[in-house]
Amino acid sequence: MRLRLRLFEFEDLPWFPATIRAGMMDYLRFMISLLGTYRPIAPLLAEGLARTAQTRVLELGAGAGGGTETVLAALRTHGQPTATITLTDLYPQPAAWADIARRTHGAIGYEPAAVNALAVPAQLAGFRTIFSAFHHFPPEAATAMLRDAVRAGTGIGVFEGAGKHWAELLLAVTVLPVAQLLLTPFFRPFRLSRLVFTYLIPLIPLCTIWDGSVSLLRMYSTAELLALAHAADPAGTFAWQAGKKRHWWGPQVTYLIGWPK
After folding, report:
1. How many CB atoms lie within 10 A of CB 26?
2. Hey, is 139 helix, strand or coil?
3. Helices (H), the chain
């Protein structure tokens, strides 16, 4: 899919109800964790940590923390036994994050205050990552995010859980909505509002269908990712690479990763 459209996503809108946004994030977290979407990029991220002599991953735009536990487990089997992850977001979700922190005995922590991915506070150190969210940023903002990482001298990895194919768009409007309806009662922590806005007033699934479809249309190609990186780092102080990693059962992850030379 070479088409790239700058359409809006509901979860980006500042007035969008937090309850509906949280329900959508709960679904994404469950599915990304269930499918192990980001396991294929663990070796890349482990290499980034090794090259920058860090053990802490600072996740930007973490949403509900979907797949973070899977990434942590994979890192620890790829030469990073002491790796930890700190979740951050412009719209923090401490309730969901606290549940993850409890399950991982603190190996995955979080920053309760809002964090702007384009200007990360200096006290929040670590190898920066952003999963399933880089497409939310227009080129100017995306470049600013990468530039901020370059300025701070830390590595950064951008990971999107799709290969940008038409088949993925078809899944987003057919199979995945059915899965959402079937699996919602099993999402934790339990929220009555999630059931109400899934089954009685189906705002969560309808908005998820729209946002999931638009996400694919907004994704950057690997060539565009490299162009953004070079614009953010004109002096070439970072080593950058972009590409796609295929999961053993078929789906792809599109990535951009860079660290100081």
Report:
1. 23
2. helix
3. 18-35, 42-51, 68-76, 94-103, 139-152, 166-173, 175-183, 192-195, 203-218, 222-232
The tokens 């269908």 sit on which residue?
Answer: 209
CA 183 to chain centre: 21
Q: Could you read off the pLDDT of 77-107 as tens digits, one per residue? A: 999 999 999 999 998 988 889 989 999 999 9
Which residues lie below 8 Å from residue 154, measured CB to CB, with a gap of 6+? Answer: 52, 54, 58, 125, 126, 127, 128
Q: Are strands 238-246 and 252-260 parallel, antiparallel or unpaired?
A: antiparallel
Q: Which helix (H) or strand (E) holds 226?
A: helix 222-232
Least confident among 9-13, 154-158, 192-196, 199-203: 9-13
Chain-centre distance of CA 215, in angstroms?
12
Task: Quickly tell me which residue has 């802490």 as its tokens.
Answer: 56
Amino acid at 191: R
Q: Tell me 200's DSSP state.
A: I
